[in-house]
């Protein structure tokens, strides 16, 4: 048991593993920079951004474009998680080891904080926006909503990465990005449509408000885990005869 844990830890410190962490850092950094930056740009152009539907469209488009792009760049290196919830689902399903998942989390969280810090330093006088829930929603309701959104997103990730559906191509990242954008359009005014604990954490750390932060961790992590387990064990179970038991492993 101890040797197994030690071997897994050493495997998490190989050159390829370190490349994966760097890829996760860079892709998460650029994703958060685009998503949070789009919100700040909308507020700059529209002072009443919270009441203007155009703001929702801008952020949704930024989510879709940014996520598709960064996934494409990291797809063959780290698996393009860019999201602690996806990493959590992969770890629960046995696609990545726990030490590797923890290093992914560290890279993602640091990248998010750094991206928001860059925006805060460069855009002097502008406040870094944080994710908030609508007045008519409770914290529990918002967490459930974020959980459902993340479930759909992670299920799409699993389907897009599954080699049984055909060779991986640029279509996969594009489909995932479109789903993320659709989720923002559906839930942005209610919970913010984060689906990404790292993005919520970075903006909260630099924005100076961790209010309702648990909403953006509990819901997404549970939703992601359920999506991964459902895809692997119920909808498209992996069998010994398919030869793709490690098809989703990164």
Automatic annotation (TrEMBL):
One of its GO terms (molecular function) is water channel activity. It is a multi-pass membrane protein. The keyword Membrane applies. GO terms for cellular component: membrane. It is found in: Membrane. Pfam families: MIP. The keyword Transport applies. The chain crosses the membrane at residues 20-42, 54-75, 102-125, 137-158, 170-193, 214-231. Keywords: Membrane, Repeat, Transmembrane, Transmembrane helix, Transport. Belongs to the MIP/aquaporin (TC 1.A.8) family. TIP (TC 1.A.8.10) subfamily. This is Aquaporin TIP5-1.
